[in-house]
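Note on ligand handling. Small-molecule inputs were canonicalized before submission; formal charges were left as drawn, and no protonation-state enumeration was performed. Where a ligand contained multiple stereocentres, the stereochemistry in the source SMILES was retained. For adenosine-5'-triphosphate, this procedure yielded the string shown in the input block below.
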Amino acid sequence: MRELKKLWIYVKKYKLFFFGGLFFIILNVIFSMIPGYLNRRIIDDVINGQQMELLFTFLVTYIAANFLRAAAIMIQRFFTESLSQNLLRDLKQDLYDHLQRLSFNFFNNNRTGELMSRMTGDMEAVRMLFADGMIQFTRAIFYIVFVMAVLIPESLKLSLVSLALSPLIGFFAYRLGVRIKPIFRQVRRQYSDLNSTVQENISGIRIVKAFHQQCYEMEKFDEENNNYFTKNYNAAKIWSKYFPIMEFLGGMSTVLLLFYGGRLVIEGEITLGIWMQFNSYLWMLIMPMRMIGHIVNMFSRTSASAERIFNILETEPEIKNKKKAVHIDRVKGEIEFKNVSLSYGDEDILKNVSFHAEPGETIAVMGATGSGKSSLINLIPRYYEPTDGQVLIDGIDNRDYDLRDLRSQVSIVMQDVFLFSETIASNIAYGQPGLDLEKIKRAADISSARNFIEEMESGFEEVIGERGMGLSGGQKQRVSIARAIVEESPILILDDATSAVDMETEHQIQQALEAMDQRSTLFLIAHRISSVRNADQILILDHGEIIERGTHEELIKNKGQYYTMFKEQYKEVIDEKEIEERWVK
Ligand SMILES: Nc1ncnc2c1ncn2[C@@H]1O[C@H](COP(=O)(O)OP(=O)(O)OP(=O)(O)O)[C@@H](O)[C@H]1O
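Structure output:
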């Protein structure tokens, strides 16, 4: 019920459609009752009363009622569809917008397939309540109320007999609703799982093929698909158990009506026409009872779906703006980590990390895999927040900045390159539509991407596949570096961004970055000494702690882990003696 209340906030924007829809559903009920009444008049007045002159009027009324009913149905549909489609659009937009605001952690903890099924299946369930459920529910109530209002004055006894089996039908319909509700919940959950399986398989199809796991994947899908089938089948079994009972009881109501009504006619208590009218209206009394299960079901399905949607909508982003956030146009790019620690759950990832970077400096971060390099740089644009300590940008805690402003100061090339299935130019100019092509080309120049782009058939207008399909790993990295460069942000982060690029090209990129007019403060995560040796500061991370820091020369002299890595990477071309002579002495 709470969920339906929340939905009302969306529905009330379309009051006209909602109340208009209700009005025409009620009109539809009224027009559907006219033929039953005319049946009675035709039997009592035209046939038994021999008033043939009335027949024409009744027939015209019959046609008019039918026509008006059809018109009411049409308008009712127009209103309920308009309501439900508008509602669907608004709710989808809100959910989508909200997803954009949620923090990284939310996406770490929720599977894409599941989120997709909220965007589709759950949304559709909510829509159906207003497109269909609203009609069923309103019709059910008004059929009972109006039909009883007409029939009771005619014959209380026959009305009661007509309704005699209704409680029983209602009981079974209700039981059906109760029993089927958890199954439908399972069906929905299974639908999410099935979606997730398909989504993960398609995104990871290259890995699947590379590992020859098609059979395993087919079996996995088969299992999920069978589970989905079984759950739907279980729901159908419950339906098939209760449905015949309700049909039977509905049929028995007709028998009761025939038997008792027939007697009342013979005894002269009611006319044959009234009895016919009862007969015509009987389905209007049985239908709502039979629909109880369906309606209860639809409400509970919708509230389960709405609950899942509102769960997301009510999830507060973990990282939010402070009330009086500091707005900035452009920072200088001075960055200081002050005793920064970070934990994910119980796991300590960064421990007491401190360093200082002047604007325009290059800070390289090295360390074994899993030592916390990406976690460290993720703190600068506040993708995560430190558990302890502070990240200062231009002397201000980055939590004090307006989040949008802060993130616009930082351009990042992530380890896992993601490109959209658009043209290369629009990938580079992502978020800056209409950006001058010359600027795009200059950025591609700096990232050493221009040549290979221009060699393509459509050059910068070449449309690339999903996630950059059709480009090599190194080409994707260079396009994503260009995308970061074109933003001209004061802080640039390259997280292992040249790992797939050859050393020569990497060197060219670094030189071009250094030669830029407005040098960004550059964070460089890399594993190759050649990538970091010109950095102003090199930080060596080990299990989340900075264990060494300094310039290339200082670290070589230090003879610590950096020195070991250097020896390892250059053992083919330089021997220890030479190192001693060049750097240590
Ligand atoms: N969102 C997360 N939730 C929980 N643990 C995480 C999360 N992200 C990273 N970790 C863990 O934090 C540790 C450091 O990860 P991080 O990605 O920062 O390492 P890294 O030094 O960049 O490694 P690599 O060189 O392999 O990219 C790892 O043990 C990783 O499992």
